[in-house]
Amino acid sequence: MAIRQAVIALALLGTTVEDPALAQQAPQLGGDISPGLAVPQEAPGGGIVLPQADRAPVLAEGPAPDVAGQTPAVEAPETAQTATPLPETLPAQTTPETTPAPRPGLAGAYDRARAFLVNGGPAIWAIAALSVVTVALILWKAWRLVLAGAWSRRMSRRAVEAWEAGDAAAALSAIEGRKGLRSRLTRAAMQARLGLSEDAAREETSRVARGLLASQGSALRALELISTIAPLLGLLGTVMGMIAAFQALQEAGSRADPSMLAGGIWEALLTTAAGMAVAIPASAALTWFEAVLDSLRNDLEDLSARIFVADLPGERRGGSLASLAAQ
Predict the structure, then answer these.
(1) Which domain covers residue 306, as residue numbers?
(2) What pLDDT score does 251 carry?
(3) CA–CA separation, 111 vs 90, rounded Å?
(4) Which residue has the higher pLDDT, 201 or 38?
(5) If we measure between CA atoms, which residue out of 224, 211, 209, 217 comes closest to residue 298?
(6) 84 is a domain residue
(7) For residue 227, what pLDDT band results from cuts at 50, 70 and 90?
(8) Contacts of 14 (CB under 8 A, 6+ apart)
């Protein structure tokens, strides 16, 4: 509204109004526009002349106003700063990658095992295969010892006590049908003692004892081999991983990141840890099985010695040695 009034005032100041009625209204219009403007004076001939101080400079360009009082359209002034054009497409805002939360239960354990195998490299797969073989050998060996009666001593000791008492028939019947290692050796030693000479009986008893112990010594060499090569495989994987890490560090040059070297080192050390994790149970199981066999060997030697030291039942009371040996 203020701009429009200023334009009307400029138009009135720069022209001479021919209409006396319009000239009479000019002072009132000028007073309405601004209190600081001087009152226009009536010039000779019917015109209106403003004081020199209140005259506005003549515009260089622009259409003259219409006599009827119509004002030309005034263009809006250009702003000092032009609006910055908006880009057609906004750049996509990148969000940092987040590590997914680990899944609980068996699914999480499977994910961790899979990541462990992937990060470990080829050596970790060989160690994983050795771990499966180790578990299978330990379970199979323990089951074989249970079936062989490695911890069963009662019936064989009862039979030897009956033999020492001079009752060969009761001694043989106590271990009849028994599948334990001690019972089998005791029966073989008693039959050899009754049917063969002492030297031949001793040789026969030694042969049977060696066969029984050899049958239970299987798979021990395999456990010993695994406990030896598993750490070596882990060390080999660690060395290969360290070589790869330092090669990547050399290729990076001045842009090398210490975290990159640290990541390569801890991934390389996974194989050493895995090799030790396989070798420790294998070595412990091997030591335990060897201790069980040593105890079994001592028991067999003790039982056979007691059988040969004791007098024959026929020497105490005349009996048929042939019938006892046939049993």
Answers:
(1) 110-326
(2) 78
(3) 38
(4) 201
(5) 209
(6) no
(7) very high
(8) 55, 56, 58, 59
Identify which of 158, 160, 211, 159 has the alpha carbon closest to the alpha carbon of residue 181: 211
The answer to whether residue 72 is domain-embedded is: no
> How many CB atoms within 10 Å of residue 188?
20
pLDDT tens digits for range 253-296: 777 677 766 667 777 788 898 999 999 999 999 999 999 999 99
Beta bridge partners of 41: 49
Q: Is position 92 within any domain?
A: no
**Residue 195 vs residue 38, higher pLDDT:** 195
Count of residues in the chain: 327
Same domain for 36 and 132? no
Higher pLDDT, 110 or 47: 110
DSSP string for residues in 147-197: HTTTT--HHHHHHHHHHHTT-HHHHHHHTTT--SHHHHHHHHHHHHHHHS-
Q: Can you tell me which residue has the tokens 């026969």?
A: 204
Alpha-helix runs per DSSP H in 43-121 = 105-120
Element (H, E) at 48: strand 48-49
CA proximity to 190, closest of 212, 211, 215, 173: 173
Q: Quote the number of domains for the chain.
A: 2
Contact between residue 64 and residue 36 where contact means Cβ atoms under 8 Å apart: no
Tokens 């005032």 correspond to what residue?
9
* Shared domain check, 128 and 35: no
309 lies in a domain?
yes
Q: Are residues 180 and 286 in the same domain?
A: yes
Quick one: what percent of the chain has pLDDT higher than 90?
A: 25
pLDDT of 313-326, one tens digit each?
A: 655 444 444 455 55
How far is residue 307 from each of residues 163, 165, 184, 311, measured CA to CA in Å? 7, 11, 13, 8
Which residue from 216, 214, 213, 167 is spatially nearest to 190, judged by alpha carbons? 167
State the Cα–Cα distance between residues 76 and 94, nearest whole angstrom: 43
Looking at residue 45, its pLDDT comes to 54
Based on the domain organization, do 308 and 177 belong to the same domain? yes
pLDDT at 158 exceeding the cut of 60: yes
